Amino acid sequence: MSNKPGDGRFVALCLVPALVLFALFMIWPTVNVFRMSLYTWSGFSPDMRFVGLDNFTKLLDDQQFVRAFQNTVALLVVVTVITMGMGLFLAAIMTRQKLRGRDLYRFVLYIPNVLSVVVIAAVFSAIYDQENGLINGTLRALSLDGLQLVWLGDQKVVLWSVAIAMVWQSLGYYMVLYMSSMSSIPEELYEASSLDGASATRQFFDITLPLIWQTLRTTLTFFVMSAVNLSFVLVRAMTGGGPDGSSEVLLSYMYKQAYTNSSYGYGMAIGVVIFMFSFLVSLLVSRATRREPVQF
Amino acid sequence: MTHKLGRGLTYALVSTIALLIAVPVAWVLVASVKTRGEFYGSPWALPEGLHLANYVDAFVTAKMGQYFLTSILVTLFGLVLVLAVSVPAAYVVARYEFRGKGLVEVLLMAGLFVNVNYIVVPIFLMLVDWDRALIDVLPDGLFIDNPGMLSLVYAATSIPFTIYLLTAYFRSIPKDYEEAAALDGASRFRIMTRVMLPMARPAVTTVVLFNFLAYWNDFIISLTLLPGDGKTLQVGLLNLMTAQKAAADYGRLYAGMVIVIVPVLIVYALIQRRLIEGMAAGGVKG
Q1: Are B191 and B70 in contact (CB under 8 A)?
Q2: What CATH architecture applies to the domain A37-117+152-288?
Q3: Would you say the C-alpha torsion B265, B270, B273, B274 has a positive or negative sign?
Q4: Confidence bin at A141 (pLDDT 50/70/90)
Q5: Chain A: closest CA distance from residue B256 (Å)
């Protein structure tokens, strides 16, 4: 559209409110995360001291931080592999085999994605409840008390319990996404390869996977970020990082430092690390999965 | 023959997974009407009657009714705000040339990658600072513990996503309609609100849906910005969870969960086709 007199004022009127809010509540706080990571500050006192990169060097010796980092990476790897693998597999068989009741399955599997994380944490706390939970209660009713675990109270088990809840929450979302991507692949391709005698497995690797590669790549790149967040909100609501830090993840440790410990500078340094980490992983994933786009 | 077997196995597998999703949710619904004693039996035993006292307890004693109202108001106000600022901005980004347009687009794009969880702490500290600056005028504070402020933060932090989706949609609409309206002498504002906005309804519906879910389901921001008595539903449920750990009062907690789940499930059942189509169109959300 060619510019006419008066356009400038209209553009400004339309743009300024959104930009002001965006700058005030997103850009400025983001800048502040980076700025505050260079200070020590206990929050409400005016005493704010510049310490350069001291907060970051301290992180390296902080055992709790290292543990939170390891937990985050472990959850990322385990949950990504299971969610993506199962999501792809389910989407493929549901699309290819044209199951009856596909819409119903899709409806049910997508439910966790609309529930809040607090609800999911509450549902899983009910499932994992030591005395009267769904799992331990069932095992007791079956006189299999020996198999009972303290799902959220055992340091060796708790991270797996969190991982299961994460998969439960995100599986349907990725399945639905892959289904919609797969359903746009023309049927002739499969018919032609069937005539050549290709098995369903071969078809999956030779036709389906290459043709939805771009979708897969995008989801993988974004999954890193959303898994870092999901692990945090879930841990915050379900375990509080316990027992004894065994389910602490990076973002929950940052909150603990910022609010409970009132070390805002130190907490923000953790924030910077998470920021860099998820950005780098996303970049690496995106690089590693780059392929020539396949057209159909 | 193998084909039939394969189909059977597929049905079995998909049904198992669907049950693994549906059963816990259904179990909570059923358990919410159990009496105190019934929680200690087999988890699969059905309750003998409808013990609705759990709901009265949750709604009144645990104040979930009041929190429900807060959540509705905060969510609605947030949606109104985000549309009021994002629709015009997305429209001019899609249709007008202006200085600094490239920068605006890059910044908004970058904003898609900033998750709110990273920046809640600085936002909280900033609002505390504002309150402190105004302490002589408003000793009770204005910004912290203000549901309206929570709506504003929700709206502000979803601006990049909203503008991104709306701009893409505005760009896909042919310019002929606007040119025809302009020839008829319609003002720029009128063209935007009367011609373009109605045509962009599918995209508006999509952003409303996603933002509704984001605002309604959030608890990190509301936990931080509303530390006082006026809580949102999610934070209320979080408190019920904490209280249950101490007092083993399952009935109230399960009733509380149902109160939080049911509205979302109803909305989901009504609009699921739209939601899933919107998801496929808008790509991946953060």
Answers
A1: no
A2: Orthogonal Bundle (1.10)
A3: negative
A4: confident
A5: 10
| For residues A37-63, average pLDDT | 82
Shortest distance, CA B113 to any CA of chain A (angstroms): 8
Give the CB-side neighbour count of residue B118, counting CA atoms within 13 A. 32
DSSP of B169-216: HHHHS-THHHHHHHHTT--HHHIIIIIIHHHTHHHHHHHHHHHHHHHH
The ipTM of this complex is 0.89
> In chain A, what residues touch B163 (CB-CB under 8 Å)?
18
Q: Tell me which of A239-243, B23-27, B250-254 is least confident.
A: A239-243
Amino acid (1-letter code) at residue B257: M
How many Å apart are CA B198 and CA B201, to the nearest integer?
5
Task: Please tell me the distance from the alpha carbon of residue B96 to that of residue B116, in angstroms, as a whole number.
Answer: 30
How far is residue B45's CA from residue A51's CA, in Å, rounded to a whole number? 61
Q: Considering only CB atoms, which chain B residues are within 8 Å of A7?
A: 96, 98, 188
Domain boundaries of chain A, sorted by first residue = 1-32, 37-117+152-288
How many CA atoms lie within 13 Å of B175's alpha carbon, on the beta-carbon side?
Answer: 8
Count Cβ atoms within 10 A of the Cβ of residue A178 and give its class: 0-12 exposed, 13-18 middle, 19 or more buried.
buried
Mutation pick from A3, A16, A19, A26 vs chain B, by most beta carbons of B within 10 Å, is A26
A171-201 confidence digits (pLDDT tens): 998 998 898 888 888 888 888 888 888 888 8
Contact B43 A13 (CB under 8 A): no
Instruction: For residue A294, give the H/E element and its range.
Output: none
Q: Which member of B89, B159, B257 has the closest CB to residue A14?
A: B89
pLDDT in tens, A63-84: 899 999 999 999 999 999 999 9
| Residue type present at position A17 | P
Span A6-20, mean pLDDT?
92
For residue B190, give both structure tokens: 């009128």
Q: For residue A219, what is the nearest residue in chain B, using CA coordinates?
A: B284
Mean pLDDT of chain A: 86
| CB-based contact B241:B64 (threshold 8 Å) | no
In Å, what is the CA distance from A16 to each residue of A6, A21, A55, B86, B123? 16, 9, 37, 10, 20
Q: Is residue B90 over pLDDT 90?
A: yes
User: Domains in chain B, please, with CATH?
Assistant: 51-282 (1.10.3720.10)
CA distance B19 to chain A (A): 9
Residue A25 confidence class, pLDDT cut points 50, 70, 90 = very high
